[in-house]
Amino acid sequence: MAVVFEKPKALTDAPLHYCPGCTHGIVHRLVAEVIDELGIQGETIAVASVGCSVMSYDYFDVDCVQAAHGRAPAVATGVKRSDPSKIVFTYQGDGDLAAIGTAETVHSAARRENITVIFINNAIYGMTGGQMAPTTLPGQVTQTSPYGRDVNTVGYPMKVCELLSGVDGAAYLERVSVHDVAHVRKAKAAIKKAFQNQIDGKGFSLIEVLSTCPTNWGVSPKKALEWIESDMIPYYPLGVYKDIYAEEENK
Amino acid sequence: MGEKVLMKGNEAIAEAAIKAGCRHYFGYPITPQTEVAAYMSKRMPKIGGTFLQAESEVAAINMVIGVSSTGKRVMTSSSSPGVSLKSEGISYLAGCDLPALVVNVQRGGPGLGGIQPSQSDYFQATKGGSHGDYHNIVLAPASVQEMASLTQKGFELADKYRMVSMILADGTLGQMMEPVEIEEVSANQVEKPWALTGTGMKREHNIVNSLYLKPDLLEIKNFERFEKYKVVEENEVMYEEYMVEDADICVVAFGISARVAKNAVNMARAQGIKAGLIRPITLWPFPKKPLFNAAQHCKAFISVEMNMGQMIQDVELAIRCTRPVYLCNRTGGMIPSPDQVLEKIVEVNDGGAK
What we know:
The complex is a heterodimer. Chain A is α/β, with parallel strands linked by helices.
């Protein structure tokens, strides 16, 4: 009988610990499918971060190192510099990448480190129970913005792709979403390109994935998917923010 | 042995690291250790190595974690305030059981302090310095030659025990020039089956990690690590004894202070005072036994330090407070003179010391 659907080889058999309706599982799968399709499982080294995806080292069936909060791009820099023939990616959330690890993110991009960054933006700190993130939307209620994010006192959300698009060293930046099938397919294409860029030695690629956190948003999984479309995408427009090779080709 | 050359202490560290097979250096400029980075930036590109000036000390130590997790020799260097920034990463290195060499060319503190030599990071280096139960192997050179040889020893011990080796030097040793011979040593003395090299689809995936959410497992991990520390304490203690055999007064000093103290011991002997010196070379593990043995015949101890009295606590513990231990110190970037130490020895010998 023909197999029409199976678990990617780059995922282990460990059951994911993520909450029902959380899209981490989808993104894990997309990354693993891409690793399978590119045939790089044996050469890939993952850098896990701190947040809900901290235990991704148990899920990705590749060599893994777990980095301190925000430091994944620095750890990935070390891994990649040690052996540039390896494929190195980080998997980070918004608190990790856009708050405590902002310097590491910006400078690894500025150095054009030949690594791939998978950035999960779900507008909240999930693992610690729903605090305000650097990407929490204006007015959004969280445990530490109980009256809604007041931009007059705590400022505005970080738009990571927009920010990094001003960094010369960044090679490829795209914001995608996984709230419906069509967008999941687009997200996979972007992730694949980000890994292919690394294989081709093209430098720093970052894919920002708009994701759900039904548990901490306090909504059903279905509502959470709808909220990405109704609230997140208007603030965080999808699309390619930088692709220096496409720019060169168009010249 | 190689040929004898005249080098700065900081440069000797860098060259010794290269000759021990270290091909990855990550750092951030800070006085008085910047020559390590400058030397590496010249040499590494010529030998296919990596010199990278990181955006911060925090990033540099995490780059060290990245290389170390792949099984290769790697180092970073800094001075006191920068080492504080590296502390988070040092705890992660300990928690992941990763080997690395960290150099601290100390300057005066706390805070931004000053840029003159100091030994005031003794507590930070030997008592952990970051969060969690852990130790670093702490090596205290007292000459440019030892800056080189202890750097190489540090790599060897780090690999052997999967620990951080820290060179605890100071601005004097970093900046001064002395003749030094640097050997070529092998980098591949220890198998590293735990290293992240890519599975090659030939083995289970390796995981380098310090997270254990189950407390019983984390406890076991800590117990195991401390079993390893016991082995280090039993086998790796290094120290120098100078005229201790018949001494009445035992001076204890490490690093540049020990050079000063040795002169003072010679001056005391010339006056007929039976003084001796114990110079710990490993500050952790601390040479408890030789100090305890010295306490059997010495009537008093003097701890000579460039801080407000930090190692003195370890001296008191080592001799179990069976003899008085006096402090002879300068701090803030000041160095004690042989005369100051001699004065203390005379005072203690006369029984008039406080």
